[in-house]
Design a protein that fits this description.
This is ABC transporter ATP-binding protein. This protein is of the alpha/beta class and 261 residues long. It has helices at 3-11, 61-68, 91-101, 117-127, 134-146, 162-175, 192-209, 220-223, 246-260, and strands at 23-32, 35-45, 50-54, 76-81, 84-85, 102-106, 180-184, 212-216, 228-233, 236-241. The structure holds adenosine-5'-triphosphate.
């Protein structure tokens, strides 16, 4: 069964609304001592967008993701995540917004090694003290089937390939239908075939389900799966493009790598 059919058969195809951005940054700065990791970033990310964030090493990509996800504090400016004004919240408030609205996928998979795949997928619900109701169980079962994990649910991460581990991490991130998934180099530890599978899954989740995804990557091929490519240099957004080919992305980046050298 294709991903779209599986999803629509469980929840119906949601309408994609572009009214309120999922993430909204206004003139955001983040300084570490003398370093301006973010230097006046203004940015909206809309529901259903698959956005790649690219730029030279040290340009501020991780800082941007961390600030937008409420993992790090902006020094100045405004940060809205799923309608919440993050800078007006205390640590507990930010943690709550993160748990309820954000999914994460990391390069190193970040699965708990002592838990099975099924337990890892359910972990965010356990941590949030949320019961998995019937509808959510059906959704997770479908995700597991579409991601090809049905026969791997009792396995621990150490018994799975890299690609399978990342698919478990993606199922975990999608399970709670978060407002946004932040993916930090999600294919950094995968071979090219597994990378293609993972990127296709992310793109399909955005296109067919309206799942908002922001992905930091160094890889022009990975970024070519996104429908928006942001280029960050010296803490600023210096490029904001629609879908681009890997070659177009490489050419853009070479200009900034040379500029940064
Ligand atoms: N916790 C921190 N303390 C001090 N400086 C920091 C901290 N985090 C980031 N920086 C600095 O902020 C700038 C942006 O870093 P950031 O990690 O966001 O860049 P990046 O684009 O994600 O880099 P990379 O591609 O190498 O991961 C860098 O100069 C970095 O050294």
């Amino acid at each position: 069964m294709c991903f779209a059919a599986a999803i629509s058969s469980v929840v119906g195809m949601p309408s994609i609304q572009h009214a309120q951005p999922v993430v909204s940054l206004r003139e955001v700065t983040r300084t570490y001592g003398q370093v301006h990791a973010l230097d006046g970033v203004t940015l909206d990310v809309h529901r259903g967008a698959f956005t790649a964030i690219m730029g030279p090493s040290g340009s501020g990509k991780s800082t941007l993701m961390n600030v937008a996800a409420g993992l790090d504090d902006a020094t100045s400016g405004q940060v809205f995540l799923a309608g919440a004004d993050l800078r007006a919240l205390d640590d507990d408030g930010r943690t709550r917004v993160r748990r309820e609205q954000v999914g994460f996928v990391f390069q190193a998979f970040n699965l708990v090694p002592t838990l099975s795949a099924a337990e890892n997928i359910a972990l965010p619900f356990d941590l949030a003290g949320r019961r998995i109701d019937g509808e959510t169980r059906a959704w997770i079962d479908h995700l597991v089937a579409v991601l090809g994990l049905t026969n791997r649910l009792s396995h621990r991460p150490g018994e799975l390939s890299g690609g399978q581990q990342q698919r478990v991490a993606i199922a975990r991130a999608l399970a709670s239908r978060p407002a946004i998934i932040f993916a930090d180099e999600p294919t950094g530890n995968l071979d090219s075939r597994s990378s293609r599978e993972v990127l296709t899954l992310l793109r399909t989740a955005a296109q067919e389900y309206g799942q908002t995804i922001a992905m930091v990557s160094h890889d022009p091929v990975a970024a070519s799966y996104a429908d928006r490519v942001l280029i960050i240099a010296d803490g600023r957004v210096v490029g904001d493009h629609g879908r681009l080919s890997p070659q177009q992305i490489s050419d853009l980046l070479i200009g900034f790598e040379v500029g940064a050298a």
